[in-house]
Design goal:
Helix 3 links the parallel strand 6 and strand 7. Helix content is 26%, strand content 20%. It has 210 residues and is of the alpha+beta class. The chain has a domain of 122 residues: VSR Endonuclease (Endonuclease, Chain A). The strands form 3 sheets. The protein has a 4-stranded mixed β-sheet, with helices on both faces. It is globular.
């Protein structure tokens, strides 16, 4: 026989709810981060750093390592001369400039008629320390001067890519492909680290642009 409820008529009654169902969270499988990315799950800001070397861009799936050369000498007395050279409109230089200006060549920034020491180079990539010289018909007549000039630039840690103006005028596409190959060879993943970045196992910050 059921026990009689002796509580007052208006007293609250207990309600027995079923126990809550606890669902275990699904297992989350994370793909391993690509090489050079943070292992903590935090997405790094650009530029990407791989093995303490900053990737500037990629060319044909090859990472190109930034190589900024600091404190290059500059002769201010050549400023007007460099400005006049930009206005001269030499055809081979104009055609090459159309291929590289405003970062259209792999998002790399080129300077035109850049003063380095007592010289004015045709084109310069400051983020790579790369000089591009377009040699005119007079190159053979001043070969000794050009060799001396190139030796000076290389002593500063710069790389020099030379191309005859006839190649630019007759086969510009091939010139650009050759330049791509040169950059991959000199600044690709197999290129040696910039001097001063890694010394005695100490990681140094990238040099500041000036």
């Amino acid at each position: 026989m059921a026990e009689k409820d002796t509580r007052p008529e208006n007293s609250p009654r207990e309600v027995n709810f079923p126990p809550p169902v606890v669902h275990s969270p699904p297992a989350v499988v994370h793909s391993p981060p690509p090489e050079g990315w943070s292992q903590t799950g935090v997405v790094p800001n650009t530029p990407v750093v791989v093995a303490d070397r900053v990737i500037l861009t990629t060319i044909n799936n090859n990472p190109i390592i930034r190589n900024f050369i600091k404190d290059l000498p500059h002769n201010p007395t050549l400023n007007q001369y460099a400005k006049d050279n930009r206005k001269a409109g030499i055809l081979a230089e104009v055609l090459f400039w159309q291929q590289v200006h405003k970062g259209i060549f792999h998002k790399i920034d080129f300077d035109r008629q850049r003063i380095i020491g007592n010289y004015i180079v045709d084109f310069y990539v400051k983020t790579l320390g790369l000089v591009i010289e377009i040699d005119g018909s007079s190159h053979n007549e001043k070969e000794e001067y050009d060799l001396e000039r190139q030796a000076y630039l290389e002593k500063l840690g710069l790389k020099v890519f030379r191309v005859p103006d006839s190649a630019v005028l007759k086969n510009l596409n091939n010139v650009m492909l050759t330049l791509e190959e040169f950059i991959v060879e000199q600044y690709g993943p197999n290129s040696p680290p910039t001097e001063g970045w890694l010394k005695a196992g100490v990681v140094h910050s990238p040099p500041e642009e000036k």
